[in-house]
Design a protein that fits this description.
Blueprint (H helix, E strand, L loop, with lengths): L1 H22 L6 H16 L12 E12 L9 H14 L6 E6 L11 H16 L3 E4 L14 E12 L22 H10 L17 H12 L15
Parallel strand pairs: 2-3
Antiparallel strand pairs: 1-4, 2-4
């Protein structure tokens, strides 16, 4: 029992010597010793927390919708209907390759089941969107349809994936405040990636690679090996 107590006291004594040696080193210059003392003060007096994992950008799907009304039994878009379409495009800012969904009342069936007036109204909306540089088609899912719609209305939906950027509000461990890291390292890189990404949908799922033309690349390597590589085209860069 006595030997056990001696061993415990020896371990505590050695730990105290090691701590004292780290806190004060006679070989250090005053400036380095001041930095070491500050680090020891922060570690022993500050309440440090485990830093969480690096935050990641999140992708969220948002659906913008608008209703376009037709007056009477006609299929002509008036000024009010065109302003509604322009309002949808201004709010959603769809990408050039996005497809705008169209829907009408009871549009569950195929276009072959629609009456002539409904088809004319859909075509009128499609032509206006095409004139503004956007493609459109009949919505195929319940989420992409505007419901409920009246008989004289055509619904427009724009499905857009938007990036939800991480919050990089990270306080600094300045005296006399104790260090408190509530955000992980790499938050700025994740934030910049979310700002620069061209298609936020890439944050959720990567694109499928197109088939590579291995034969074409192999011919280029073969021409290089046999010394029949094509020279670069010379261009005159002198200003005139």
């Amino acid at each position: 029992m006595l030997s056990h107590k001696k061993t415990r006291l020896s371990a505590l004594f050695c730990l105290g010597l090691a701590t004292a040696g780290c806190a004060g080193d006679p070989d250090r210059d005053p400036g380095a010793q001041k930095v070491a003392d500050a680090i020891n003060t922060v570690f022993y007096n500050g309440k440090w927390q485990q830093i969480p994992a690096t935050p990641e950008n999140q992708a969220e799907t948002i659906i913008f919708e608008q209703r376009v009304s037709f007056a009477g039994d006609g299929a002509v878009l008036d000024r009010r209907a065109r302003r509604a379409i322009d309002r949808l495009l201004a709010e959603s800012e769809p990408t050039p390759n996005s497809l705008i969904g169209l829907s009408v009342a009871d549009s569950v069936g195929a276009p072959a089941t629609f009456d002539r007036l409904t088809l004319q109204r859909l075509e009128a909306v499609r032509l206006v969107l095409a004139d503004r540089g956007y493609q459109s088609a009949l919505a195929t899912t319940a989420e992409a349809r505007v419901a409920p719609l009246d008989d004289g209305e055509v619904g427009l939906t724009v499905t857009k994936v938007m990036a939800i950027l991480p919050d990089c509000d990270q306080p600094q461990p300045l005296e006399p405040n104790t260090p408190d890291f509530n955000r992980g390292f790499g938050c700025s890189n994740a934030y910049n990636l979310g700002v620069m990404v061209a298609d936020p949908a890439d944050l959720e799922r990567g694109r499928v690679l197109e088939p590579a033309d291995a034969e074409r690349h192999g011919m280029s390597v073969l021409r290089y090996r046999v010394g029949k590589d094509e020279p670069l085209q010379e261009e005159d860069t002198n200003s005139k």
